[in-house]
Amino acid sequence: MSFGFMGKILRVDLPRGTILEEELREDVTRQYIGGVGIATRYLYDEVPKGADPLGAENLLIFMAGPLAGTASASASRYSAVAKSPLTGIWGHANSGGSFGPALKRSGFDGIIFQGISPTPVYLSIEEGIPELRDATHLWGKNVPQTEALIRQGSDKQFTIASIGPAGENLVRFAAIMNNTHRAAGRCGLGAVMGSKRLKAVACAGKIPLRLANEEAFRRNAN
Known about the structure:
Layout: E1 8-13, E2 18-23, H1 26-31, H2 34-46, E3 59-64, E4 78-83, E5 90-95, H3 99-105, E6 110-114, E7 121-126, E8 129-134, H4 143-151, E9 159-162, H5 165-168, E10 176-178, E11 182-184, H6 189-195, E12 198-204, H7 214-220
Parallel strand pairs: 1-6, 7-12
Antiparallel strand pairs: 1-2, 3-4, 3-6, 4-5, 7-8, 9-10, 9-12, 10-11
């Protein structure tokens, strides 16, 4: 895999409650720019024409680009991509803060969520180990409450992306929030997250990111 990538993504089957780790497609990373380009290629390849944006056939994809997690200026963003419930076509939202770098440092470039969970869940990734956890106690909570409850009783420094009641209730312009107040706010992707009964994604890790020439990169990153 090219430098700047972890080389792995997670595929989360929400109805079955299973998580598979797969290699990030190198042909895609070489043809498409950044997290949004990579995620869009997966979306177009895998979501069938006519799929309901709030139905099981739609995917919700989180993806960080090759500069996320590095010292490069303005490169901390991540992208969320799905078929939009607001427009009925391709939908993309992105956000700053530390969620993009945290996703990379947890060991993965991206996550593909498919299907609909029978009950509310959230995804935890700690040092490369993913786990779906029950989120029944989080359902109905706002974003600050959700982040606080996920962090309770853990010594991990989680960075969290989540939805509040708007996403849960499928408001078609609902945002995905991270770092409490930062929003991936376009295209109603919070509603897609809510339709899948996915309350949050929590990432923690210190897995290093490989650079081809770290000294030269740091010298020129800013």
